[in-house]
Structures are given as structure tokens and as C-alpha cells.
From TrEMBL:
This is SET domain-containing protein. Residues 40-191 form the SET domain. InterPro entries: SET_dom (IPR001214), SET_dom_sf (IPR046341). It comes from Tremella mesenterica (Jelly fungus). SUPFAM superfamilies: SET domain.
Length: 203
């Protein structure tokens, strides 16, 4: 069952020595994000249009006009980690800076921080470290944002790394340069690698 949360949670098996990596620059503070109430300018709505590719699911819609380059909503979820062996082709140095973590099975998982083994801030020598935020089981309205493909010609919003009021690194959804009209669906790009990782037709 989905749990609605107002702050991201740390996974129970998250190593405490990785907590400083959630701050920029990394620092030893207690992870204490300020609560993010549900924004009054957004609603989660069922997709009733049969021609919409996410028909039968939900989407995120605006209740007022959103200005260009406006923070629409932070993306909350459960913060978790992965240690990546040095010879893994998806290591941070090889994989680039993708926002969406295509390695994870969850469709609600975004990559937050990737630290290479030779980064002086990496407390685990011999491993790359990847930290993500997964809203599959617990999240806020942001988890309902759909990808623009098959719905619009281009996205009207994007994922951006930002900083919460408690100083923590977090994922956020921001409007792009046209802004959004009242009642419009918020649509991002999950990225080609996200879709490639889920392609079932073998192409
Ligand atoms: C982060 S969730 C988005 C919220 C989801 N619609 C819901 O109701 O929980 C990602 C999932 O939404 C669906 N989805 C999002 N954008 C889509 C698109 N452009 N075409 C088809 N399915 C999409 C896919 O099922 C995908 O796995």
C-alpha cells in the first residue's frame, strides 16, 4: 500500500557513513528535512482518456498557471543506496549524469547522488556509491508525474537536483521555459535510458 509522506525517509539499511553525502558539501549533520505539505497548486487525477498512454493510472495536474522556471514540487520517497563494483560499466564515471536510475526495478526510483570510488568524499574505498530516492512504496504527489511521450510533443517540466530547507540534497520538479497553464498535466522526460531499460519488444 502506498504511504503519503511529507519528508523523505531513510531506508532502514542505509549506512550512516553515507549520510553526509546527502549534503553539499558533504557534512556530518543529522538528516532532518523540513516537511513539504501537499502543494495547493497541484492535483493527482485519474487518467480517464483512453488515448492517453497511462490510461487507467494517475497523473499530476496543475490547479493554477505555473510560471516559467518555477519549482513545482519536490520529489519525496525512500532514500536508499547501492555499492557499485569498480568494473561495473554503469559506474558513476561511465554512466554520466542521468537523473533517472535505470538500474532499479522500481518505476518510481530516481538517482540522487553518484560518487566515484576515487572521490575524496567517498567513505567506501573500492566502491562507487549510488544514492537514490524511490517513491514506489512511500512518496508525495510528485510520484504521479508522467513522461511526455505519447501525450505531448515535448515535456513542460524537468527533474532537477535541488536543496531542501534542511540543507539536504533532493530531487525536484521544475517547470520549463513556457510554464504551464491551469489544468495542464505536468510532464517530464524520464530519459531514453529509462525507456530502453523497460523495452519488452527487444528493440
Ligand atoms: C512514476 S510513475 C508515473 C505515475 C503513474 N502514472 C501512476 O499512476 O502511478 C511511472 C509509470 O507511469 C506510466 N507512464 C508514465 N508516463 C507514461 C507514458 N508517456 N506512456 C506510458 N506510460 C507512462 C508507466 O506505467 C510508468 O511505469
Amino acid at each position: 500500500m502506498l504511504k503519503f509522506i511529507t519528508r523523505s525517509l531513510i531506508s532502514p539499511n542505509f549506512p550512516p557513513d553515507l549520510l553526509p553525502l546527502l549534503y553539499q558539501p558533504p557534512s556530518l549533520v543529522k538528516f532532518q528535512p523540513r516537511p513539504v505539505p501537499h502543494p495547493s497548486h497541484l492535483s493527482i487525477k485519474p487518467i480517464l482518456d483512453p488515448s492517453h498512454p497511462a490510461h487507467g493510472q494517475y497523473g499530476l495536474f496543475t490547479k493554477r498557471r505555473i510560471s516559467p522556471s518555477e519549482l513545482i514540487i519536490p520529489y519525496l520517497g525512500i532514500i536508499h543506496h547501492t555499492f557499485i563494483p569498480l568494473d561495473d560499466p554503469n559506474s558513476p564515471s561511465e554512466a554520466g549524469d542521468t537523473a533517472v536510475d535505470e538500474e532499479q526495478e522500481s518505476d518510481y526510483d530516481l538517482s540522487l547522488v553518484r560518487i566515484s570510488s576515487h572521490d575524496p568524499n567517498n567513505p567506501r574505498k573500492g566502491w562507487h556509491v549510488s544514492i537514490g530516492v524511490d517513491a514506489a512504496k512511500a512518496g508525495n504527489a510528485a510520484r504521479f508525474v508522467n513522461d511526455y511521450r505519447g501525450i505531448a510533443v515535448s515535456p513542460n517540466a524537468e527533474f532537477r537536483i535541488g536543496t531542501g530547507e534542511g540543507g539536504e540534497v533532493r530531487m525536484e520538479i521544475w517547470s520549463l521555459k513556457k510554464g504551464l497553464g491551469k489544468g495542464e498535466e505536468v510532464l517530464v522526460s524520464y530519459g531514453k535510458s529509462w525507456w530502453n531499460a523497460r523495452r519488452t519488444d527487444g528493440s
